[in-house]
Amino acid sequence: MFTRFISGIKSPLSLTFASVVLLAGCGSSSESTVDTGTPTEENTPFTLDFTAKSAGETVACDTSHNQFGTEELHAISVSDLRFYISNLKFYNENNEEISAELDANDFQRHSEQGFVGLIDFTSNTAGACTDDALGGTERTNTAISGTIIGGTGTVNSVSFDVGVPQAVMKDVIATNTQEDAPTPLNELYWSWASGYRHFVMNFTIENTEEVEGKGLIHLGSRDCGGDGLLALEEKDTCDFVNTPKVTLDNFNPVNDVVVLDIDAMLNNVQFSATGDEVTPTVSCHSNPTQTDCTALFENFGLDITDGSADADANLVFIKE
What we know:
mainly beta, 3 helices, 8-stranded mixed sheet, single chain
């Protein structure tokens, strides 16, 4: 019988704005938090943190989560969970964009074609993540960092895309081999000519009869090039962009975290066996003919017929 541990402890990760105020006398100092309700003229560092949860429990390499599938008979253990963030914007209470500069580091890359950051929740050194076939990379990253430009307002909402912009795919990725593509754009290689992966979740599945299977959820742009061509070599955009959009209103910069809701993502996914097999399987490689893609695309706010995205229909990313 499956059991589920539900943690009531809130993740300490949040979008924080902090400044250090040095006090005169005896070399003493103290740290204070900027009042985010009052716009400041000073530039303020920020960290936009992400986490993944199922029924209140943080998803990690060594956790198991149950009651999945249309009959709630399956448990999953995540082996690899990572995705790209682009087109990140903050807005004030008047829905006016707030100026921000995003850092450049091993997980955040700038180019003339756009910014891309990689969120990677899972390593390859513990639990289900040690699976050679389903696991990811050793390093992890759970935040996007940068600086809010002073005097531009108080953050009240955030929006972003889940994926690599088409211009970056065309001018940065497709002009390189997988090995030569700049970090972190070489992390989620898919066929250069076919498309590019924006979001990946691999996981193992176990049902109540202890029959094991696997899940592969790979959201990516499709039909990006013809036979023998690089992706977007003769196109400006892929036929199916498949880049989910996210908007989180009333986003509190002190307390709120961006949460990937695993339960919402897998809602209405059947976890069914195929053909004469009894092995439970979830498989979606962004192909409209794949049965599991129908529910997954709907949950991500993606139109499976044309690859367009609707932020209002995206149920997977929430705030906490």
